[in-house]
Amino acid sequence: MPLLQTLDVSVRFGGVTALDTVSIDADSGKVTGLIGPNGAGKTTIFNVITGLQSPTQGRVMIDGSDVTSLPVHRRARMGIARTFQRLEIFGSLTVRENIQVAAEIRRRWSRTRFDVDAQTDEIVDRIGLDRVADAPANTLPTGLARLTELGRALAAQPRLLLLDEPGSGLDTHESEEFGRRLGELAGDGIAVLLVEHDMDLIMEVCDWIHVLDFGIHIAQGTADEVRNNPKVQEAYLGAGDEIIEPDQGHPADPTIEFEALR
Amino acid sequence: MIPPAIQLIGMRAAYGRIEVLRGVDLLVPAGTLFALLGPNGAGKTTTLKVIDGRHEASAGCVHIAGQHVNGVGADSLARAGVCSIPEGRGIFPNLTVEENLKIMTYGRSGLSASDVQDKTYTRFPILGERRKQLSGTLSGGQQQMLAISRAVVTDPSLLLVDELSMGLAPLVVKELYDVLGQLAADGMTVLLVEQFARTALAIADYAAVLVHGRVQDVGQPADMQDVAGAYLGAAS
Amino acid sequence: MNEFIGLTIAGISLGAIYAIAASGLVVTYTTSGVFNFAHGAIGMVMAFTYWQLRVSDHWAAPFALGLCLLIIAPAIGVLLQRVLIRHVNINDTGLMLVVTLAILVALMGIAFTVWPQTTGRNLSLFFGANRHVSIAGNRVSYEELISIVLAAAVAGGLRLFFYNTRLGIAMRGVVDDRSLMALNGGRPASLNALSWMIGAALGALAGILQASTSALDVLNLTLLVLNSFAAAMLGRLRSLPLTFAGAMVLGLADAYVTGYVNLSGWLLHLRPVLPTLFLFIVLLVLPAVRLRAGVAPVAKATRVPSARASLTTGALLVVLAAVIAPLLHGTVLGNVNAGVSLGIGALSIVLLSGYGGQISLSQYTFFGFGAWIFAHTGHGGNPVGLLVAALAGAALGAVVALPALRLRGLELALSTLAFGQLAYYLFFLQDSVMGRSDLVVPRLHLPGLSLENNRTNLIVMTAIFAILAAGVLAIRRGPFGRLLNATKDSQAACATLGLNLRITKIALFSVATALATFGGALYGSTQHTVTSDNFQYIQSLFIVLIVYIWGVSTPGAALAGALSLSLAPQIAIHLPTRFTAVTYFMTGFGALGLVLRPEGIIASTGERFREIFSRSPRFGPSSIPPIPAEVSHATVADA
Predict the structure, then answer these.
(1) How distant is the alpha carbon of residue C131 from its chain centre?
(2) Which H helix or E strand runs over C35?
(3) Alpha carbon of A174: minimum distance to chain B alpha carbons (Å)
(4) Beta carbons of C310 and C470 less than 8 angstroms apart
(5) In angstroms, rounded to a whole number, what is the distance separating the alpha carbons of residues C465 and C473?
(6) Which of B44, B138, B203, B214 to probe the A interface (max A CBs under 10 A)?
């Protein structure tokens, strides 16, 4: 059974449908990709999975349990961690402190004992942030900031890791490095769900890929299957004359206000 | 000799300490439809922001119609005939269709509210049916129609469009692109930023590909097909 | 029946004034994105200005009114917006709140100085005091009728303006998307200025009307704004019709309570706080106002002294106190003593606002609770009484935090302000508490050490401050301090890491309030006797402002600030009687400097010294490896 399952999740606000009965899943030990053009609903589904957005319909299952009504922090404690498309880094803390505070938060609610400092050092090394560990996070270029967010997510020792465009801002070399790391994480048994625009990275690293367009799940499969799927090509590269679909309406870039936090 | 509509020479732009555009050289001839392509994060929107005055270049020259416009404010450029439709629906979501149209009259002196409404509803009848509706509740395609109305009613000399087709159905995209094509055919210079290479190349006279803050390739669409595919991954 | 009609008319005319005031507030908020705390103060200054022109200089009413409403008030509005408000990041709600508070206090100071309160002043609008009509057997003055007519005119006029004119529509649009307005050819800066002009004019009208129907009093007129807050909140800071409705409810409630309820004993002080009670209830019961989402600016990281540095500084401070104490006597000694003990309580502001990013405008209320508790549990100066005060504070903080969980920034500040005012009227003014006679608070008695001697007390207070300040710094350096910074930077990220934000907030309020009551107890013991005057709620504004001025993230600011406040009277003595509003000027104008230096005096001076004395910058390019900065435009906060 997949670690993560969304069952017919729909999100509607203001008369427009951001997600329409989307069912995707992610397995432990695998890297699953989630792709689709801008505005397809990828960040929205992440928000639904983590609890920052309540679905109008549908359920989210983690390890067989229905978590749809759990608040954000309770869900996180079940082993979900994420990074954000619009960086939500702790700018007033240093890189090391970003990771350290995540470990400290975990220590508050976790029953297992562990050494915060040791774990922080280990993650800083593993991710390759030792050179900038003492820099205030708000002085970092985006690539390093995204790596810091990754480190922070790892400090929560997740079983399910949601990465929202972690590769944007990385050059080819860094991208390859990153892809390698993702493979390692999956190797450790973590279920990785990855939203990305960098096609090379996706095709290289993902064991399975889901494709969204307009909030609809239009395709899934291996890298090759997805790459050669005409519907996917259509969705990405633009208008073909033969397919006529009614105008479904789509919301403008929604800035989520994280209502669930109130 | 008509000066180029836009000329960027060694233009650099940064957000705080992070440099996004590292020396952009671009020449958009007057009266052409020019497509600016490139992967996400390349700096396409930032380029538009520098041209329309929302963002100041940190180095290099920005010329519009042969005039140096570095540092000129967006509202001045708008009143001078630059119409820029930003990414993510260039409309005020909390105002009705009618009210949005009223705001557009700022862009050209002597333009009356009724003129604007007539022109818009003629071109886009569906907006006429929904004139009292809050524009934020319109469908994506309708919102974009409203946004592009500004180009139709203010008759600018330069039109900048950022990601017109984002999140829209192919049929609607086709209609919007028809409008663009018509405006260009009437002599307007159009600079079009687009994620979807095929759609843009279908109507463009020229195209440039922006990668990592620099122009990598420039040419006519026929020469650009393979290049675009290589940068955009997925299908070829 | 006639009585009912009479009360109803009175209520509606009062409600009319609240409605005009509240609409000005809502207009400024919805068209410029700023909640103007100083709104009532502008109205107050204009009422006095009108009095000056009309009564003192004998101008004809139409000219005086015209000048005030159409020229002076809008000019003040534009001035404030261009010179101050424009330079504060609109997403920095904390700083914006403090700056508008500062304007409020500064305007009060100006009013006290230009129009000293030693003589009474009266204002009547157009007609003499005897002009009235008779409705159902009630005397209704022309002023009351005019208020109602004007409110209706304002309602109609605003509706027409904002929905039927291009300018009004543009003002509604610009607050959603400034750059889009510019792209359309509109001028966002002019639109913002206009928004403040209209807001100020409406505030002025309300202030003049209020002054003509009641008294020309600085404090009351300024706090007219509290009433309009309640009405504005009912309208969710968005809907003018609801705002007007809310204002009417308030006015009618006031009239009916005055007319029908026998206000004695405990309820004696209910009338002035009715609007505040209303505000409190509205804030707690109605769903949170959808404040504009935006990226809050990251505060400039201030250096945190090491443990050794803070203990050394603390020790030096105690030595300094020991050296200075013998040189002081009389009132100055008393003031310094009071200052240091207040400084202990003010550390709560550093913790709550500086580290935690939460603004509370009722710290003096907690000081008062602390003093009261110690008076009753610290017999003979027993230190256990201090412990009780602290524990009570912790419990109180947890309780206060509960509604705060739903309230963000602005609403939290408003609810603490309301709480402070309510507590003052309904608790501190009670005869049994501190209302009628002085409350005696014993001097702290430590084993083997008598603090009856003021000098000894000063040294001990300084020592306690030093220890607690070091403690607060230790918190900052430790896990909780990191956590507070993290929650300020991104609540969403914290929640997704498994943090229960509510518990964190409750813990923060608890510890901060415990500090406040502890400090209040010590303050009370230093003063020997306290009355309700010691804990006026306006002082909560002063202390927040002064700590911000010195640096809300630096513990030293708590001491510097408290000393500034307690020594201010010493300065006032040497000035002509007209200039007794020293505290208002110091805190009001001083806090305006935050627009330039939000980190405060201590931190920015330290920064300056470091720049002069050190060569290499702290984090130069050499320490960050040269990695090309690829950036997605969507991820970088717009400069």
Answers:
(1) 39
(2) none
(3) 14
(4) yes
(5) 12
(6) B138
* β-bridge pairing C445-446 and C449-450: antiparallel
Furthest CA-CA distance within chain C = 85
B43: nearest CA partner in chain A: A169
For C506, the token pair is 């409750």
**Dihedral sign from CA coordinates of C295, C299, C301, C304:** negative
Q: For residue A19, list its beta bridge partners.
A: A11
Q: Which is it for strands B59-64 and A65-66: parallel, antiparallel or unpaired? A: unpaired
Please give the single-letter amino acid code of residue C77: G
Beta bridge partners of B27: B7
pLDDT digits (tens, 9 = 90+) for C147-169: 899 999 999 999 999 999 999 99
Chain B hits for C298, CB-CB cut-off 8 Å, are none
**Which has the minimum average pLDDT: A63-72, C251-260, C544-553?**
C251-260
Mutation for C interface: B17, B46, B92, most C CBs within 10 A: B92
For the purposes of burial, counting CB atoms within 10 Å of the CB of A172, is it exposed (0-12), middle (13-18) or buried (19 or more)? exposed
User: For testing the chain B interface, which of C184, C624, C631 should be mutated: the one with the most B CBs within 10 Å?
Assistant: C184
- B173 closest CA partner among B199, B201, B205: B199
Nearest to B73 among C170, C182, C631 (CB): C182
A111 three-class SS: coil
Candidate from C166, C188, C628 with C-beta closest to B105: C166
Instruction: Map tokens 């001491």 to a residue.
Output: C559
What would the pLDDT profile of C43-98 be if each residue is shown by its tens digit? 999 999 999 998 888 888 888 889 999 999 999 999 999 999 999 888 888 899 99
Nearest to B233 among A139, A200, A249 (CB): A200
- The reply to whether residue C184 touches residue B18, judged by beta carbons under 8 angstroms, is no
Is B196 close to A237, i.e. CB distance below 8 A? Answer: yes
If 0-12 CB within 10 Å is exposed, 13-18 middle and 19+ buried, where does residue A224 land?
Answer: exposed
**Cβ–Cβ gap A261/C492 under 8 Å:** yes
Q: Which residues lie closer than 8 Å to A192 by C-beta, 6 or more apart?
A: A26, A30, A31, A32, A161, A163, A182, A185, A186
First and final C-alpha spacing in chain C: 63
Interior angle at CA C464, CA C460 and CA C465, nearest 5: 115
Alpha carbon of residue A52 to chain centroid = 13
Under an 8 A CB cutoff, do C495 and A140 touch?
no
Smallest CA–CA distance, residue C599 to chain A, in Å, is 14
> Contact, C102 vs C592, CB < 8 A?
yes
Residues in chain C within 8 Å Cβ distance of B212: 628, 630
Phi then psi dihedrals of residue B133, to 5 deg = -85, 145
**C569-587 residue pLDDT tens:** 888 888 877 777 888 988 9
Residues C22-45 have a mean pLDDT of 92
The number of beta carbons lying within 10 Å of the beta carbon of residue B74 is: 24
pLDDT > 60? residue A243: no
**Is B75 close to C172, i.e. CB distance below 8 A?**
no
d(CA B15, CA C631) in angstroms, rounded, equals: 9
How far is C213 from C147, CA to CA, in rounded Å?
10
Q: Does C639 touch chain A (CB under 8 A)?
A: no
Q: How many other β-carbons are positioned within 10 Å of the β-carbon of residue B17?
A: 12
Residue B124 phi, psi (nearest 5): -125, 80
C-alpha to C-alpha distance for B11 and A251, rounded to whole angstroms: 34
Contact flag C173-B95 (C-beta cutoff 8 Å): yes
How far apart CA B76 and CA C186 sit, in angstroms, is: 9
| B171 interfaces chain A, CB cutoff of 8 Å | yes
Measured CA to CA, the distance from residue C343 to residue C334 in angstroms comes to 14
CA distance B143 to B90: 8
